[in-house]
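A note from the maintainers: we've had questions about how concatenated examples are separated. There is no special marker in the raw files; a new sequence line simply starts the next protein. For clarity in this README we add a label.
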Amino acid sequence: MRADNIVVRQIFLAATAFIVMIVGIVVPGHAARAASSVTVNTVAELQSAVSGAVEDTTITLGNSFPQTLPGAVTLNLAAPVAVRIDGSGMTLYPAATGRHLTVTTSGSSSLRLENLTFALPAGSTATNGGVYVTQQGTSTVALSDLDFVGLKTTALGFGGSGTGKLSLTRSSFVGNSASSAAALLYGRGSAVAATTMSGLTFEANRGLSGAGYSGGAMRVDAGAQGSLLIEDSLFLNNTFVDGGSQPRGGAIALHNASVQLTLNRDYFRGNSTASSSKPGSADGGAVSVFNSTPGSNGSLRVSDSVFEANQAQDDGAAIFLEGRAATQAEKFPTQLVVENSTFSKNVSGDAGGFDTGGVIQASLRVEASVTNNTFLTNTKAGGRGGIDLGAHSATEATYGAQSPKGTVVNNIFTAAKSVDVGTWGCGTNVGCAADTVTVTTAQEPQLLLDVFGTANPALDSNRTTRSAGDPRPGKTTEILGTVAIAPPLSATSYTAYQFAAVGSTPTADERGIAHRTAPALPDAGSLAMDYVRFDAQTNGGSWSGLTSLFPHLGGRYLGDPEASQGWYEVRDPGTAVPLPTVDPTAPGGTEFVGWFTAPTGGTAVTAAPAAQGQTLYAQFVPFPTFTVTFDSAGGSAVAAVADLASGDLVAEPTAPIRDGFTFDGWVRAGEAYDFSTPVTSNITLVAAWTPVPPLTTIELSVEDVVQVYGQVKAIHLSVSGVSSGWINVTLGERSLGGVPVVDGAAVIQPDGTSPLAVGSYAIYASYFSSETPLRTASVVGAEGTFTVNPAETQTTLSVEQTKGGGTVSLQGSVTAEYDTVPTGSVRVRVAGREASLLLPLDEHGHYGGEMALPEGYAGTRLVLSSEYVNDADHLASTARAELAVPVRGGAGGGTGTVLATTGASDPAGYAILLVSLGSLLLVVTAATRRRMRR
C-alpha cells in the first residue's frame, strides 16, 4: 500500500502549516511577547540572528542564502526566546567537511527549524553532512518539514542532557547510508526527557557495518534515557547488514539504552537485518531492543501498528527484545507490550537454529503482554516453533537463569506452530488456547477460511482514516491496513468474532474504532467488526448469480454466488448497514415482503439497521390469489375455482342444470361475464336462467288410421299438460312435420304420397312451446308401432264393393259421411272362394238387417247394421259387418297385415284387414271421400 498505489488525501495542509507556524513562535511556559522577523542571506547573518535574538524571532533564509554552505554551520541559542528558522524550501549542501548544521540550545530557549532539505550535490561521494542537535537545560526544539536525502552519514542526531521537549514532525529520510543509524541517532541523556516524532517517512536507509552497534535507519544510542514516542510514521525498506557483533534492527535499534520507546500507528514494511559474520545475531528485522546488562532497561510498547514483510536472518522478523536482571528476585526491567497490531508476511531465517521467535522474539528477562493482535502468513525457517511468538531462555554465568514471561490473550494465530507454548502458554486466542496450539497443519487452510472468509487474507484499508508517513504532498505514505475478519459462518467454524473476554481488550481496535462493551464480547485480533446477516434460506428463499466477496470492512461478505451462508453486511460495531441491494428469490407461489427480526412474526426492518451481530430473516407470503365462485342460483352445483394468480383467466365451467329453466350463461353485476377477462380479485358469477314449461307428457294414441294404398292418412294424438304448442311426429325415419296443439290434441295428416314398405314403424312425437324449439323433452308414452305383414304368409279375405263409392275402415268404428246413401252388394272372397253378401236396405234406405251367410261357411256369422243421421247437410249411415271364418296360413298370434286391393267402381274403396291369426275381424265402411271427422 505505497503512496503511488493509495492516494492519501492531504487535508487541511495549508491550515496545518499556518498553525505550526504560530505554535512555533510561542514558547511553552512563556508569556506572549513581542516578535520580530528577519531575512538572512549569509551564514554569518543566520548565526548572528540566532545567537543574538533578544525577542521571539522568525528568521527566513533569503534568496541569496548559499545553497552550498561555506563551512560547517554552528547555531547556538541560549536566550529565553523563541526562534523560528524558515528555510524557505531551500536545499542545502554541506561544505567539504563537517555537518550541514550543528545546533545547540540551552537555558529556556525554544528553537524551531523547518522547510529545508539536506542533501549532497549530484554525484557527490562525500561522507559528511547532516544535522546534529544538542539540547541542554529546559530548552525545547521542534523540527518540521525537513528532508534528508542521500546522505552518506547519519542524517540527523539528537543529544544533550536537557529535559525540554523535542519534536520532529512532517519530515522524510530517504536513501541515506551510514555504518549504522543512517537516518537518525537518538542520544538524549535525561531520564525525564520526552521526545515525540510523528508523520515521518524513513525509506531505503542502510546501515552498512555498525562496528558492534545496530540500527539500519535509526538507533537509540547506548546510555540514552527518557521517553521516545514515534507515531504515524513509515519505515519502508530500511536495512542493516554486517553489523559487527550486534547486527540488529533493520529499521530501529535500541542498544543498551534506558529509553521507553512507544510505537503508535506506525507502519514497518520490507525492513531487514542480516549479517555474513554473525547470522545468528541478525535479529529484529524491523525493531530491536537489546539490553546486554541489567543496567539497561530499554522497553518497547507497540500499538495500532502494522508489520509487513520484514525479514530477520535469525529471529524476530518484526520485533526482537532482550533483557537481563541481576537476580531472579529482581523485577523484569525490560517490558514488551504489543497490542492492536497486525503482523503479516514476515519472514524469519532462524540462522541460529534453536530460538523460536519468528515474528516476535522475547529473549531472556523480558516481561511481555501480547493482546489483540493479528498474525497471519508469517513464516519461520526452522527452530522449535513460535512462528509468531517465541522465546529464548538461558542461564548466564554472571546473572544466572534468564527467561521471559507474560500473557498472550485475544490474538489471532493462524499456524500450527504459532506460539512457543512452553514459555508463553496460551490463554484465550484464536488458534492457540488453553495452553496448547489448537490448530494442526492440516487445519490451517480451514482456519483461514473460517476466520477471514478467504484462503488468501491480506491487508486492506478497511475504512481507516489513518496513514503512516510524511503527510506533505508528494511524500511516501502508507495506509495502516488491517485484515478483516469474517462473521461466524457456522456453529463449528473458527471465529474471532466476540471471542475475547469482557474487559480483556484495549478500548478500541487498531483503527481507533471502539470495541463492543459489556454485555457484548469484543473480538480477537486487531480489528473490531460487526455485521448484520441477512438470511433468505430459512424460509425457503435463495439467491443466485452473486459475486463472491471478501469481507472488507465497510462492505459485504458473500461466501458463494448463492450466499448460502447468508448475505453479510460487515461494518464497524454499531454502524448502520444497508439492506441487500438484491431481493432474494421467493419460493414458488410466494413473494418477498421484507426483512424481519425473526423467521416468523418479529418486527419488520425497513431502514438501515445498526451492525450488532444480528440476523434478519427474509419473509415471504403467498402470491395474492383469487377465487371465482359460481352461484348456480338454484341449479346444480358448480365448484369454485381457487388459487388464481392476478391476471389468470378462469375457464368457463360446464353449464349447470335446473329443472324448468334454460341456462342463459354467467353474469356479474347484471352483465354477461366475458371469460377472456383477467381475474384480478375475488368474484362471484351468477347463473342466468329463463323459465321453460314443465316437462310435458305426450300420449300417442293412434285412434283412427286410414290406409290408402299403404299410406297413413291421419294420426290422432292427445297431449297432456299443455293446451297449445307444437307436435313434431316422426314415423320411422321420416318426419311427418309439426302440427299445432289445439285444446290438448293434435292431428297429423301426411300428404299421402309415399307408400309404406312392409315392416314395423316407430312413431315418435316431440313437443315444442313454439314453432322454434326452445326445449326438447323425452316424451313419456309418446311412441307407438304400426305394422304391415306380408300377404303371402297369411290367409286373405277380400271384400269388393260393387256399387257406390266409399272406403273400408281398418279398425275401430268409423262414421262415413255421405251426400247420398250408397247401395249395392259386397262380394267376399275367403281363401280364394267368393261369396256375395247383399247389403239390404231398411225402410229408411240404409243398410240394415242380417245378411245371409256365404255358402260353405257354416258357423260363420255376418252381421250388417246401419244407422243414419239426417240433418241439413249430411245423410250419415254406418254399415258394419262382422265375419268370423276359419283361417288358414300362418300359425300363432300376432298383429295383422294391411293389403290394398282394387275395385271396379272405386279403386280406393277396397281393402282387407287381417287382425289376428286366430280370427278375422272385418270392418267395412262405405263413405264419400269428401271429409272425415271423429
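[label: protein 2]
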Amino acid sequence: MKKSAFLQLCMFLVVATLCAQPLSLDYLRTVQGLNKGQLKTALHDLVQPRLVLSYGGGSNRTWSGFAVTDVMPDGSVRDRYSDIRREFDGQNAVTGMNIEHIWANSWWGHTMNNAYCDLFNLYPADGSANGRKSNNPIGVVDGATSFDNGVTKVGKSSSYSTDQLITAWEPADEWKGDFARTYFYMATTYQHMTNEWQTTEGLLTVDPTSWTTMRPWVYELMLEWAAADPVDDIERNRNEAIYGIQGNRNPYVDIPELADYVWGSRNEEVFYVDPTSTAPEVFVPVHDVSLDFGLQALSLGMSRQVMVRGRNLPTGLTATIEGNGFAMADADLTAQEVIAGAPLTITSSATAGGVYDAMLILRGEGNYEQRTPLRMTVIDGVPAYPARDITSTVNSRSFLATWMDMHLPEGEKYIIDVYTKDSEGERKSFGTYPVELTDTFCFVRNPAASTTYYYEVRTSQGLVSNEVQVDIPAITPIFTASSSDMLFTAVPEKPSLPQNMKLNVLGISGYSIVVSCPDPYEVSLDGETWSHELTLNSSQLEFQIRFAGAPYEGVYASEMTLLLPDVRELIVSLTASVDATKAFFESFELGNKGGYAEAAVTCNAATWVMNRALISGSEVFHNDGRSVRMQIGGSITMQDDKVGGCDSLWFYAGLYNKDTGVKLNVSYSLDGGMTWTPVAQDIAFNSGEWKRYGYEIKRDGLIRLKFATQDGNQNKRINLDDIQMSDFGTNVAVQDFELSLDAEPTAVYTLDGRYVGTSVPARSGIYVVRKGDKVWKLKH
C-alpha cells in the first residue's frame, strides 16, 4: 500500500472509531464504591490490555499503531518531545525518531512484557530529545539545564528532595497532563510488577513496598500537572484509538478526577461515576455476567465468597439462589452493608458429576431485582486442570500437568498417565508413564512437537480425573543476543570504542536478520563502514555497534532492534555516557575471568593481561556489577595502547573483604610496554574504605597502564574498578585539593547540582557547600 493511501486509511479508522458510538462509562461499574488502594487494585484488574502490538516497525507493530494513535490532521507525526515535523513512512519506523517509553523499560530490567509494548506507555519521540531524556524520571527542571529544545528539558531537579538534586526531564506545559495521566495508568496497570522494579532512576519513581506504586513526590507532582493541563480532544482521541487496538482504556483520561480518589485530596471518599445518582444500583456482582467457579471435586464440596456492593438501596438486599447444584442460606444485607461491601458464602449441593447452572438473585425495595448466573463443573473424582507452561523449542519441550489436592491419606499416591491416541482413539502411554506421585503436579518432559497428548490422574482409592488434552505446538526457533543492555563511554565530538554483538539462531534456516538502531548509534560488519541498519544472514551472526558521538556531555539512551521474521524481535538497550574525562573508561562489566591464572581478557575499553587476578560480581566493593580482585604479587596490564595520551587518571580501589596490608603500584608506558614510568607507588588502603583515586599524567602519544600489587602473602587481595583516563590536553587534570567537612549534615555540590560528598578529592572548579541553612561558594 502506498504511504498516502495507508495514512488515509489510518485517519479513516480513527474517525470511524470515534464516531461509532458515544463513550459508555459502564465499564467502570465494578470499581464504584471504592477508594485508595482498593480502587486502584480494582482498576488494575479491569484495564489490562487484551493484546499488545509487537515492538518496532512494520505490520502489527508499534509504528503501525502510532500511525493510528499519533497522526496529525496533515498526516505527519505528533511529536510531544520536539517541534520537528516528520512524515509517517507507512507502518515503518520514522527516520530520526524513537519509540519512547514513558516508564523506562530499564526500570523493570528490559523484560519484553506487556508494559514494554503497551501503547499507553509508548510515544513517537524525536531521537535526540529521547536520547538526552535517557532513563531519568520526570520532574521539574529547576537547576542547571543540560538540554532544552523548547519542548523537552533535561537537567537538575529538586522535585525528589530539597536536600539532593537528581537528573530529571520536564515536558512542555501542553503535554504535562498527558504524561501525568500516563503515569497514573502505568502505576495502576502494572502494580503487580512489585518484584521487577529496579535501577536508581526507576526506584526514584516507583516504591515497590507501597500500594501507591509511585512515590509521594511523583504522584503529588503528577496530580498538580494533571489539574493544570486538563484532558483535551487529542488525549481523548488517542485513548479511543488505543482502545481500538488493545481493547483497553486509560480510565484517568475518561474520568480525570479518578486519580484524586486514589492518590489525591478525595481519597477518603469513595468513587462513583455519577455521585449525584439516586437510582438503586448493585455494582458487584454484575447483572447478567456469569460467575464461573470452574472445576470442583464432588467429594470435597465447594465454598466460595461472592462480594456484593452497591448503593441507594435503603432497605438493603435479600439474596437467594434458584437452580440445582448450588446452596446458600438466604441472606439479608442491610443498606450499610451493601454500601461497604459484604460477602455471600455460596456452597455446592451437587450429588453427582456434571455441569451445574443456577441464578443468584438480589432483590431490593420496590421491584428492584438483579440476576447473576452461576456455573461450576463438578468432577466425580480428581479435577485435573489445563496444562501450563507448554514449551516447544530446539532445546526444550515440556508441559506442566496439575490437579486438585484431594487430601490423600498418608502413604497414598496419585497415578498420572500421559498418552497419545491413534486414529481409532486407542491410548498409547508416553515414555515411562503411568507414574506415581505425591505432588499435585508433574513436569512432562520431551514430548514430540506438533503432537496432541492427554493426561489423566487417578488414586488408589478409585478416584479418576477428567481427561486433559495438551496440544504441543511446532518447534519455536531460538533467537538470542549476547547482551540485552550495552553501555558506552565517549568524549564530546568523538565516537565510542565499538563493542561486539553475537547472535544465536537455532531451529530455522534460510533466514535474514535486520539490525536497526537510531542516531547517534551505528552498526558495522567490518568496523570500517558504519550505518544505522544491517541485514545479516546465517553466516554473519556477529557485528559491531558503537556510539557515533555527540557534541555535548550527558547520557544518551536508545534501543537497537533485531528482527527475525516469524520470531519475536529482540530489543537491546543502549546507553552512552558522554564525558570529557572518559576518553578511556574500563568498568570490567564485559570481561569474564573466574580464576587467578594468567590470561588475556577483553573487557569494555581494553584487553588486559591479568595475572593473579580475576573478575567477580560477588565483591563487597565494586561499581555497577563487577570489579577486579587482585592478589598480592598480581597485576593487570593493558595489552594495547590508548591513543590520545592521558591528561589525568582515576580509578576506584579498596581492600577485599577483611584483608589488610596490600599496597598498589600504578605505572604507564609510552613504548608499548618496554619501559614503565611510575604514577603512584605503595598506595596503602584503610580497611572498609572504597575510594576514588586520581593522578596527573599529562603525556601525549600512545599509552598503556599497569596496576600491580607488591609481593607477599597471596591470600591478601584488593578490588579495582572503573579505570578512567582523559585525553591529553583536555584540561581536566586532578589537583591536590580536598574539601573536607566532617560536621553533619554538611553536603558539597558542584554548580550543576551533582552531590560530591563530605570529604572528597576535587579538581579545579567552583563548589557549593551547604550546612543546614548556610551556603558557601568555594573556588579553587
